[in-house]
């Protein structure tokens, strides 16, 4: 996973009003899982 793309993904979440610091661990894990699915779909 590219760090650059992951940081961009986190920035997009923040832009949607989701503060990363306030996310529960399972929500972060779910976000990472969805991110991997999205990245896999783009390949």
Calculate Rg over CA atoms.
10 Å
β-strand percent reads under 5%
Number of helices: 2
Percent of residues in helices comes to over 70%
Characterize the structure shown.
The radius of gyration is 10 Å and the shape is globular. It has 43 residues and is mainly α. It is 72% helix and 0% strand. It has one domain.
Topology:
Layout lengths: L2 H13 L9 H18 L1
Could you name the key traits of this structure?
43 residues; mainly alpha; 2 helices
Short recap of the structure:
The chain is mostly helical and 43 residues long. It has helices at 3-15, 25-42. The protein is built from two helices and no strands.
